[in-house]
């Protein structure tokens, strides 16, 4: 097996595969990196001459693509060819929650992972290092290994687990300066080959090696702990509202304890994103399959708290608007699950919108990076009502002023920086009175908003 890697292939050109391979290509000019995907539209967008058309928005990404694309970074739909040529293959396909059969709504759907393993086994003419980049249940490497072991020709394959810890919106800086790189594996040589790649820009002290199962389980555990912090502070936010405490003050006070730490303690309308919920559900499912009921119940509570936070924010809007929003215009600022991304998967905004639409509100949505078609696609996907009804009740606008004009209330769902810079006086002047402002991100200053004449509510005080 050749361990001085010159050709890498990554299967799955999504939110992880795209930025991760772009950074590897940028840091390792002598390595040829090919990203492949079955989704031809996505690959065409990655190859688009207009960098504004890239399928993913991440600060700093387009500059790296501009430097590396067609030099040592390539995007293609020719999966077999790229697999055959590569010495190291990253699997970075989606691992969504299963929506059918056994484990429906809980377990990770590993069909895409298995298809990749089978394709690698079928196509390979030489041994390869196969790297699990996707987030997968602990012991998935055993499945991949057993499929690869059955490949014809007795080729030598090594499976490594190398979970990705980047957060969307800061993907590039997270990749360039990671807290740690985790590599789990059984072959020292294969581990070293992957280490050699990261060591071009990551301090070796930050590269941690473990056994395969610890690495796989660490990824689910990291996401569970992060999500748990958000649910914990959100639980306290409700208590703050009842007692006169202020959740930011509480967060600062507890965060100064170095054992607790100050990060990830921002109360919000609830965490979203493609991973926290699916990974915790997966963890809960795994625990249940081992009959670890208390362990499963413990982690499930993180999700239940998150669901509660989303619905209590939506309920609060309805209750404050005199218990009915029927026919009332409510402007929603933000649709992405967090700022600096165009990703809307599991965004709290979708669930708040669905709740308000069920109450027959007229929603006027604005998000700086999410298109109208994506917003309609998200709300249609919930299947609560027909797409015609969704289009009757929900409109999408090109700027916040248009969205808020004539509104009974404004709700902030995503913490985009530009929402802080809005001319809130103009917004207020063009709204109906009383002008309600529901801040689901604790983005604005209460005094300032009240001085402008808003009836201001924010979570956690
Ligand atoms: P994504 O849906 O954006 O991208 C996955 C891509 O894989 C899709 O474009 C899909 O078409 C492609 N694909 C699926 N099966 C394929 C196959 N057999 N051959 C070729 N292409 C195939 O997903 P993502 O957000 O990039 O996440 C990928 C994995 O990384 C998931 O397991 C996720 O949990 C994990 N992860 C995601 C993040 C994140 O911030 N999004 C962070 C860390 C880890
Ligand atoms: C998260 C993790 O942070 C990454 O380490 C991990 O790699 C990734 O999931 C994954 O596996 O997919 P991401 O979901 O992109 O990254 O973004 P986060 O910054 O973690 O935010 C997740 C959600 O929690 C967002 O909706 C955000 O608004 C919310 N959040 C976060 C809060 O409400 N409060 C906080 O203090 C922090």
UniProtKB/TrEMBL annotation:
<comment type="similarity">
    <text>Belongs to the UDP-glucose/GDP-mannose dehydrogenase family.</text>
</comment>
<dbReference type="InterPro" id="IPR014026">
    <property type="entry name" value="UDP-Glc/GDP-Man_DH_dimer"/>
</dbReference>
<protein>
    <recommendedName>
        <fullName>UDP-glucose 6-dehydrogenase</fullName>
        <ecNumber>1.1.1.22</ecNumber>
    </recommendedName>
</protein>
<dbReference type="InterPro" id="IPR028356">
    <property type="entry name" value="UDPglc_DH_euk"/>
</dbReference>
<comment type="pathway">
    <text>Nucleotide-sugar biosynthesis; UDP-alpha-D-glucuronate biosynthesis; UDP-alpha-D-glucuronate from UDP-alpha-D-glucose: step 1/1.</text>
</comment>
<feature type="domain" description="UDP-glucose/GDP-mannose dehydrogenase C-terminal">
    <location>
        <begin position="331"/>
        <end position="446"/>
    </location>
</feature>
<dbReference type="InterPro" id="IPR014027">
    <property type="entry name" value="UDP-Glc/GDP-Man_DH_C"/>
</dbReference>
<dbReference type="InterPro" id="IPR036220">
    <property type="entry name" value="UDP-Glc/GDP-Man_DH_C_sf"/>
</dbReference>
<dbReference type="Pfam" id="PF03720">
    <property type="entry name" value="UDPG_MGDP_dh_C"/>
</dbReference>
<dbReference type="InterPro" id="IPR036291">
    <property type="entry name" value="NAD(P)-bd_dom_sf"/>
</dbReference>
<keyword id="KW-0520">NAD</keyword>
<dbReference type="Pfam" id="PF00984">
    <property type="entry name" value="UDPG_MGDP_dh"/>
</dbReference>
<keyword id="KW-0560">Oxidoreductase</keyword>
<dbReference type="InterPro" id="IPR001732">
    <property type="entry name" value="UDP-Glc/GDP-Man_DH_N"/>
</dbReference>
<dbReference type="InterPro" id="IPR017476">
    <property type="entry name" value="UDP-Glc/GDP-Man"/>
</dbReference>
<dbReference type="Pfam" id="PF03721">
    <property type="entry name" value="UDPG_MGDP_dh_N"/>
</dbReference>
<dbReference type="InterPro" id="IPR008927">
    <property type="entry name" value="6-PGluconate_DH-like_C_sf"/>
</dbReference>
């Amino acid at each position: 097996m050749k361990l001085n890697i010159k050709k890498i292939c990554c299967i799955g050109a999504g939110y992880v595969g795209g930025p991760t391979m772009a950074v590897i290509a940028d840091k390792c000019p002598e390595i040829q990196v090919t990203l492949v995907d079955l989704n031809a539209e996505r690959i065409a967008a990655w190859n688009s001459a207009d960098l504004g058309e890239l399928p993913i928005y991440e600060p700093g990404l387009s500059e790296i693509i501009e430097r590396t694309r067609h030099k040592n970074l390539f995007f293609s739909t020719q999966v077999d060819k790229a697999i055959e040529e590569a010495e190291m293959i990253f699997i970075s396909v989606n691992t969504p929650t299963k929506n059918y059969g056994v484990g429906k709504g809980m377990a990770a759907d590993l069909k895409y992972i298995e298809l990749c393993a089978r394709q690698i086994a079928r196509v390979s003419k030489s041994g390869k290092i196969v790297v699990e980049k996707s987030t997968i249940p602990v012991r998935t490497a055993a499945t991949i290994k057993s499929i690869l072991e059955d490949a014809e020709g007795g080729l030598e394959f090594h499976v490594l687990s190398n979970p990705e810890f980047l957060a969307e919106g800061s993907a590039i800086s997270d990749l360039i300066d990671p807290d740690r790189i985790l590599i789990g594996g059984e072959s020292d040589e294969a581990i070293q080959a992957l280490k050699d790649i990261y060591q071009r820009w990551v301090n070796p002290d930050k590269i941690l090696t473990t056994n395969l199962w610890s690495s796989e389980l660490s990824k689910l555990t990291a996401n569970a702990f992060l999500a748990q912090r958000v649910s914990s502070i959100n639980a306290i936010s409700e208590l703050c509202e009842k007692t006169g405490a202020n959740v930011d003050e509480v967060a600062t006070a507890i965060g100064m304890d170095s054992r607790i730490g100050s990060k990830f303690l921002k109360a919000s309308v609830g965490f979203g994103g493609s991973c926290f919920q699916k990974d915790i559900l997966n963890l809960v499912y795994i625990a249940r399959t081992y009959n670890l009921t208390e362990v499963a119940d413990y982690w499930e509570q993180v999700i239940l708290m998150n669901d509660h936070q989303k619905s209590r924010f939506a309920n609060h809007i309805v209750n404050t608007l005199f218990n009915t929003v029927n026919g009332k215009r409510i402007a929603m600022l933000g649709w992405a699950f967090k700022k600096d991304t165009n990703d809307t998967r599991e965004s709290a905004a979708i669930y708040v919108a669905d709740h308000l639409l069920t109450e027959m509100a007229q929603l006027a949505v604005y998000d700086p990076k999410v298109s109208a078609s994506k917003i309609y696609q998200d709300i249609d996907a919930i299947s609560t009502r027909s797409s015609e009804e969704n289009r009757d009740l929900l409109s999408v606008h090109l700027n916040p002023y248009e969205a808020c004009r004539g509104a009974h209330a404004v709700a902030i769902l995503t913490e985009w920086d530009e929402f802080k810079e809005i001319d809130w006086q103009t917004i207020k002047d063009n709204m109906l009175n009383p002008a309600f402002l529901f801040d689901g991100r604790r983005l604005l200053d209460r005094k300032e908003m009240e001085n402008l004449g808003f009836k201001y509510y924010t979570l956690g005080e």
